[in-house]
Amino acid sequence: MFYTEMGDQSMTIKLIATDLDGTLLDDHGDYDRSRFARVYAALRQQGITFAVASGHFAREIAPLFEQYPDIWLIGSNGAELAKATGEVALKTFSTQTLTQIRQALAAYDELQVVLCSDQAVYTTENHSPRIAARLRESYPQLNMVAQLADVTAPIIRVDLHCTPGQTAQCAYELKPKLAGIATPVAMASDMLSLVQPGVHKGTALRALGHRLNVSPAEMLAFGDGTNDLEMLHAVKNAVAVHNAPKNVQANAATVTGTNNDGGVLRYLEQHFLA
Q1: Could you say which of 178, 195, 212 is where a domain stops?
Q2: Among its keywords, does the record have Glycoprotein (predicted)?
């Protein structure tokens, strides 16, 4: 078993999880493949499981790590827990909850609503050609339907596309209207995702730990954004990258380098390759 030092505390690590965008991935959406291969091989030799967590679908992040079938994928901000081998666990909305969400969104004609399953996404046919083209660019598996009530696939999240810069206002208005049934999470300046209450990267990481018989004290997590805070809180050993906002850094036990200078890999090299 591997032991290392973090601050003044000794820790035994069996599971390491990292956010992707802005954390492990650089600003071009990639990572140092050869450097990662060396680090990953060393971690596996020590019996340490590695997981990546993202707001993206698991099927979207899987190609980044197709060489590593043992890596766990936490997708859709915790709604998906999967492996490249095909093993998957989903947190889906009930039919009743989706009806309540549609009713709450009926007053927002300016929002483009997209229902997302783990394999495909759905929106209505009544979008303008410009908006439809933009949605097809964002979602290669986009399906057009007459009405969202016709969708029978299990839905793991609901995406809302709005005017750029309006996500904060939309989230502020929708939060009380969706209380208890869905939580708005900002994904970009023009997009929100509605996820199930209590479903986030932290709950998915805890579920993975339970599956692997790993306690929070034996987990290490890296993050850079507010949607990583639950994951950082779910583990005893939390690390923020230096490009993270100050409030995220304040929720971590230590800070490593930035995503562009390989801060996550540098930390792992220093603590697990020595």
Answers
A1: 195
A2: no
CA atoms lying within 13 Å on the CB side of residue 251: 19
User: Which residue range forms the structural domain that includes residue 78?
Assistant: 3-90+199-272
Q: What percent of the chain has pLDDT over 90?
A: 80
Report the sign of the C-alpha dihedral through residues 221, 222, 227, 232, in that order.
positive
- pLDDT digits over 193-220, tens only? 999 999 999 999 999 999 999 999 999 9
Alpha-helix runs per DSSP H in the chain = 33-45, 58-61, 95-105, 129-138, 167-177, 201-212, 229-233, 246-249, 263-272
Q: What's the pLDDT tens digit per position in 44-90?
A: 999 999 999 999 999 999 999 999 999 999 999 999 999 977 778 89
Q: pLDDT digit string (tens) for 108-125?
A: 988 999 999 998 999 999
Pairing of strands 72-75, 49-53: parallel
Helix H or strand E segment including 223: strand 219-223
- Domain boundary pick from 134, 168, 195: 195
CA–CA dist 237, 13 (Å, integer): 9
Same domain (yes/no): 14, 81: yes
CATH code of the domain in which 121 resides: 3.30.1240.10
Is residue 53 located within the same domain as residue 99?
Answer: no
